[in-house]
Amino acid sequence: MTRSSHARRAEDRPRRFARVRAILAGGLVLGVGGSLTMAAWADSEFGQATFTASRFTTESSINSGTSWADSTAAAPLIFAFPAGGMSPSTVKYAPFWVRTKSLSLDGTLALQPATNDNATLAGAMRYRVVRYPAGATCGAALFQAGASPAPTAFIVGTAGAAGSATTSVALTSGAVLPTTAVTANQGAATQFCFEVSMNSDAANELQGQSVTPTWEVKASSSS
């Protein structure tokens, strides 16, 4: 190898080192640049809502709204029919009011056919039910044709003479009955008036017997 070749190699070393340093430096710069591009500020926004189930609860009264109570199948309210036994052609009346409780939704009321514990005696009795307006009194006048004030609606039976097979329904009847409205939030009560009568031809053998009809008013919310 000649001196000139050694000289050229010696001259090339600094150049190669310079190129390597430049490449490394470039790589470092690219690496730093990549980090800066990937980094970012972060933030988030959140929304929340609370949902509460609505309420639908009712209560009833047997003394025209003087007092109110919850009633159940096991502990029903006892109608305030006038005292005394039923005889052929006897007719008796009693109120039964229903309203919603405070904060309750409005809804509908569906009177169910009566259940009873003495089909024989129940078969000799008939009944009618009207919904009547505030200020009116539960009694015979509400059930007469042309009544004033007129009942809001007949729930069971039609206007006319008490105890008639054409205006009243057998206590043993299972016919489906119409619904009526009840207002929200302990508003105005839905006032029912019940009429119960004994048939004029009731059998003599029924003397001394008893029957306990139970009516259910099913309440359903509007939503």
Class per helix and strand makeup: alpha+beta
Give me the count of strands: 9
**How confident overall, as mean pLDDT?**
89
Poorly predicted runs: 28-32
Helix-strand topology string: HEEEHEEEEEE
Percent of residues in helices comes to 10-25%
- Strand residue percentage: 15-25%
Amino-to-carboxy terminus distance: 105 Å
Query: How many structural domains can be distinguished in the coordinates?
Result: 2
Instruction: Summarize the main sheet.
Output: 6 strands, antiparallel
How many whole angstroms does the radius of gyration measure? 44 Å
Q: What overall form do the CA principal axes indicate?
A: elongated
Number of helices: 2
Description:
The protein folds into two domains: 1-43; 58-221, no CATH class. The protein has 223 residues and is of the alpha+beta class. The chain contains two helices and nine strands, in the order αβββαββββββ. Strands 1, 2, 4, 5, 6 and 8 form a six-stranded antiparallel beta sheet that branches. The protein has a three-stranded antiparallel beta sheet with strand order 7-3-9, with no helix packed on it. It has helices spanning 3-38, 119-122, and strands at residues 58-61, 91-100, 107-111, 125-131, 153-156, 169-170, 179-182, 190-198, 217-221. The longest helix is centred in the first third of the chain and has 36 residues, at 3-38.
